Amino acid sequence: MKVRLNRYLSMCGISSRRYADELIAGGKVRVNGVVVNELGYRIDTDTDEVKVGRKTLGVERKRYLLLNKPRFYLTALGRGDDDKETIGELITDIPERVYPVGRLDYDTEGVLILTNDGELAHKILHPSYELIKVYQAAVRGKVNNETLRRMRGGAELKDGYAIPDHIKVVKYDDNKGTVLEIAFHEGRNRLVKRFLSEFGHPVLKLKRISVGPIILGDLPKGGWRYFTQDELDALKKAVGR
User: Fold this and answer.
1) Rounded to two decimals, what is the model's pTM?
2) What contacts 137, CB < 8 A, 6 or more positions away?
């Protein structure tokens, strides 16, 4: 990518563009070992080496990952409590350090986004952007039509009223349980589990199957992959970037 040298210094967090111009004009910046004092000079960020004094600069590449988090893994990058397994053990061979966007409970599986793009992560989590998260919940008992109707009307929880963006029955299993699809654009702690318990149908197993346009698909448990460009574009569009 070709950019103006002063902008590149700003992108690297060295200075504002105005102060970057002063550094360039003062002969403090070298490109490929040669002092550059031309204010409009453009560099190739992929091939040119830029130094300010003795410091070699580089812009951290933005990374966007989809992980299919297994059950009984902590949403943490370091060692877990009591030596519990963590998602950090699943994410390997990535040059940049990425961070989970929100969290999934220890016993919840499915879509977990990781990135080093702090701005996008904030927008994914903030309820004002109304990014819908869809879950598949196996619950105890048969959810009848009347209960489903009441669920669609919402429930008062300890931390305020909650109403799903949608909810439907996926199937009834042989053990008189029900598999539901339920979606919220909020991210309150244990929201799905608390909501369904209010109606007498505690969650037995929970899987997040999508976050906005990012869909789990057939990604195996414990596997991860980079976003496609179409997925990234769709996610940024969904949060207004």
Assistant:
1) 0.78
2) 179, 180, 181, 182, 192, 196, 203, 205, 206, 207
